[in-house]
From TrEMBL:
Domain Tetrapyrrole biosynthesis uroporphyrinogen III synthase: 315-521
PANTHER family: PORPHOBILINOGEN DEAMINASE
CDD domains for this protein: HemD
Protein name: hydroxymethylbilane synthase
Task of the protein: Tetrapolymerization of the monopyrrole PBG into the hydroxymethylbilane pre-uroporphyrinogen in several discrete steps.
Source organism: Tessaracoccus rhinocerotis
Domain Porphobilinogen deaminase N-terminal: 3-192
InterPro entries from the UniProt entry: 4pyrrol_syn_uPrphyn_synt_sf, 4pyrrol_synth_uPrphyn_synth, HemC, Porphobilin_deaminase_N, Porphobilinogen_deaminase_C_sf
EC number(s) per entry: 2.5.1.61
This protein's GO CC annotations: cytoplasm
Organism lineage: Bacteria, Bacillati, Actinomycetota, Actinomycetes, Propionibacteriales
Any Gene Ontology biological process: heme biosynthetic process
Family listed: Belongs to the HMBS family.
Catalytic activity: 4 porphobilinogen + H2O = hydroxymethylbilane + 4 NH4(+)
């Protein structure tokens, strides 16, 4: 079977991918690897899941301790292989252990939990993040530039540098630490069957119990959770809650039968016991919840209150001009990437969004004079023209990548697309079928915010929105992650990427538009009102 494997293009991610590729090829499968730009752990999880739901590739690998809470509809964690060393480990300069660190020692670590543990063992530490990656931080320790690194044992093992470890911590780590998950689409039964060969029931059951504790607790940002499950006859589950103010650790242990069902129940029960000990109140004042209003009936599109889950732009302005009440609320932030590529040698330069235009402006790039410029719609073209560029190709009757492809001439030449690291590869593939050589130049990526604005979340869950506009696949994932899908709010999908991700996530789409023009979306909203 031919299997497409998507992975982040980082040292550790590639090592994990190569290990799986070797196992798959030993079983007679042909594996094609797709490398995604390395833009950070949580952002890469979104990229990988977006690629799965968009059918860019078939399988992705996750570190389970980095996975957000909850399941993404349309995906399946088909295998949880045998777990690596789950412990936190310390790599100290000149063989130092934690207790030997001098006052003011500089230690790199990545999580609040590890900082809380280390602070209790050795106060007075100066912390920094693990940047740019773990391997380089370990090199800095060896060179004497850092006093130590506190990280996961499994990652050090993947780098084949376990001999540098000077201390192993036995306290519970983050839920799922040391475990991997192989994820695919829920409806890809053949892929699920292949991946199931790698599943380890013991690891899956322990991970399920640990994550059940984590997902059941609602801790404030002033407390962190460590949890460890062990299966031997019965399931033993221990959880430690560390208050960041240095208050005593709250620690509980439970044992139960060993099926996955009972493991999750044990996790929920342990979380309930921790809750009764007041761990959810650490650093938090309780807030009363408002009563939800009754759902109103609309008679005209101008009565609608619509959520556009992105920054102010052509869509929100166009909807307001039609008389709608629009909340334009970005749930993602645009982050510039370190770019080593250039646009030299391009016959065409294509811009698929105003975000791409803003990114090249902020990077200080000047487009080659000899290159022809295309834009997916009038808004993107206006942004380019405001910078002094002539835009030669813009679709007139619609907006979006498909509209641009409809008017794109057959021919030859080199096309550069400075855009999002999340851009669907299908756009480039369709240009290639027209005879062109294509290059994606990732100049930015979209990162999901830590949380939605409280007033937006309250309005969403209270059913105060009459529709939500989803204009990209990553936009769909951000709404699902930060707000969850409200079955009382109709979803309007704009563009094939948004539609594909929503469909595979099993989110009902009330209306779909190929066009990104606001007037076309207004027409769909009128249909919603007419349908009641």
């Amino acid at each position: 079977m031919r299997i497409r494997l998507g992975t982040k293009d980082s040292t550790l991610a590639m090592l994990r991918a190569e290990a799986l590729i070797e196992q798959l090829e030993e079983r007679g499968h042909e594996v094609e690897i797709f490398r995604l730009p390395n833009v950070g752990d949580f952002e890469s999880i979104g990229q990988l899941r977006l690629g799965l739901l968009r059918d860019d590739f078939d399988v992705v690998i996750h570190r389970i301790n980095r996975l957000p809470e909850g399941k993404v509809p349309g995906t399946e964690l088909a295998a949880v292989p045998v777990r690596g060393d789950r412990r936190d480990v310390f790599v100290g300069r000149d063989g130092m252990t934690i207790s030997a660190l001098p006052d003011g020692a500089r230690v790199a670590t990545a999580t609040p939990l590890r900082r809380a543990k280390l602070t209790r063992l050795r106060p007075g530490i100066q912390y920094e993040d693990i940047k740019p990656n773990l391997a380089e931080c370990l090199d800095r320790v060896a060179a004497g530039e850092l006093d130590g690194v506190l990280c996961g044992a499994a990652d050090v093992d993947y780098l084949e540098r376990a001999e540098e470890i000077t201390q192993r911590l036995e306290t519970p780590p983050t839920a799922g630490q040391g475990a991997l998950g192989y994820e695919c689409r829920q409806d890809d039964k053949d892929i699920i069957e292949v991946l199931a060969e790698f599943d380890d029931p013991d690891t899956r059951i322990c991970v399920a119990a640990e994550r059940a504790v984590q997902e059941s607790l609602d801790l404030s940002d002033q407390a962190v959770l460590g949890v460890r499950a062990h299966r031997q006859g019965v399931l033993s589950l221990r959880a430690d809650v560390f208050p960041l103010d240095g208050s005593p650790v709250v620690s509980l242990t439970l044992g139960m039968p060993t099926s996955e069902f009972h493991a999750v129940r044990t996790g929920h029960r342990l979380a309930g016991l921790l809750r009764s000990r007041g761990v959810e109140e650490i650093g938090r004042d309780p807030k009363p919840q408002p009563a939800p209003p009754e759902k109103r009936r609309l008679s005209d599109v101008t009565e609608m209150r619509v959520l556009v889950a992105r920054e102010e732009g052509r869509m929100s302005v166009g909807l307001r001009s039609a008389g709608l009440q629009v909340d334009a609320v970005p749930l993602q932030t645009r982050e510039l990437l370190n770019v080593s590529s250039t646009l030299d040698g391009a016959d065409w330069i294509v811009f698929t969004s105003t975000r791409a235009v803003a990114s090249i402006r902020e990077l200080g790039w000047t487009l080659p004079r000899e290159a022809r410029i295309a834009a997916v719609g009038p808004g993107t073209a206006d942004a380019l023209e405001s910078m002094g560029y002539d835009v030669e190709l813009v679709p007139e009757k619609a907006a979006g990548v498909n509209a641009l492809l409809d008017v794109w001439p057959d021919g030859t030449g080199t096309v550069y697309v400075p855009g999002s690291a999340l851009l669907a590869p299908s756009f480039l593939a369709k240009l290639q079928r027209k005879g062109y050589t294509t290059h994606l130049v990732p100049v930015y990526t979209m990162e999901t915010l830590p949380s939605a604005p409280p007033e937006v979340a309250e309005a969403w869950h209270a059913g105060l929105y009459d529709a939500v506009i989803i204009a990209s696949g990553s936009n769909a994932l951000a709404v699902g992650e930060l707000l969850g899908w409200n079955s009382d709010v109709p979803v309007v999908a704009v563009g094939e990427s948004a539609q594909a991700v929503l469909r595979r996530a099993h989110v009902p789409v009330a209306k779909f538009s190929h066009s990104y023009r606001p007037q076309d979306v207004v027409g769909l909203l009128r249909e919603l009102v007419a349908e009641g």
